[in-house]
Amino acid sequence: MGSFEHSVDDKNRLVLPASYRSRLADGAYLGPLDAYLGLWPAAAFSSVLEKWEDGVTLGMVSEEAYDAFSAATFEVQPDGQGRIVVPRSLRSFAELTGPVLVVGARQRVAVWARDRWDQRMETIPEGPDGAVRQAARDLKL
User: Fold this and answer.
1) Which residues are registered as beta bridge partners of 109?
2) Cβ distance 3 to 104 under 8 Å?
3) Considering the entire predicted model, what is its pTM?
4) Do 48 and 32 touch, CB atoms closer than 8 A?
5) Would you state the pLDDT for residue 53?
6) Dist CA 76 CA 29 (whole Å)
7) SS3 readout for 4-62
């Protein structure tokens, strides 16, 4: 949970928020998703691959898409300061050229270019705050 603004430094490293580091200390996988990058703890990544395999079996996604995801996903290991190296291909895919938003996103961490995140939030007709308020009412939270 939570969101944190960071950036990719001149050595292509992204500092992970301190609250995420312990869950990613044993390694993680960084790969492309829908306009952003997903970061999964190594121990949980097998379930991601199972979802891809199920998608191929059910005809929801092609084997080529699965192969492309696999080829573009990298194992990463946080260093002593909680930084991971973001490969050039993934920086290009997610357009990580300026501020980066690191967002807790259910079973993964999402790494967004800040401007892409802002554009996504602008697509919510009532705005993000209004959407949260309405969802809280609908869910009776």
Assistant:
1) 39, 104
2) yes
3) 0.85
4) no
5) 93
6) 6
7) EEEEECCCCEEECCHHHHHHHCCCEEEEECCCCEEEEEHHHHHHHHHHHHHHHHCCCCC
Structure tokens at 47: 């379930």
In sequence order, what DSSP letters do the residues of 55-97 get, joined into one string?
A: HHHTTSS-HHHHHHHHHH-EEE---TTSEEE--HHHHHHTT-S
Cα–Cα distance measured from residue 141 to residue 136, given in angstroms and rounded to the nearest whole number: 5
- Residue indicated by tokens 């290009």: 92
Residue whose structure tokens are 């990719």: 8
- Record the tokens describing residue 32, joined without a space: 């492309």
| Torsion angles phi and psi, residue 100, rounded to 5 | -120, 140
Q: Are 91 and 12 in contact (CB under 8 A)?
A: yes
For residue 103, what pLDDT band results from cuts at 50, 70 and 90?
confident
Q: Is residue 121 classed as helix, strand or coil in its secondary structure?
A: helix
| pLDDT band, residue 9 (cuts 50/70/90) | confident
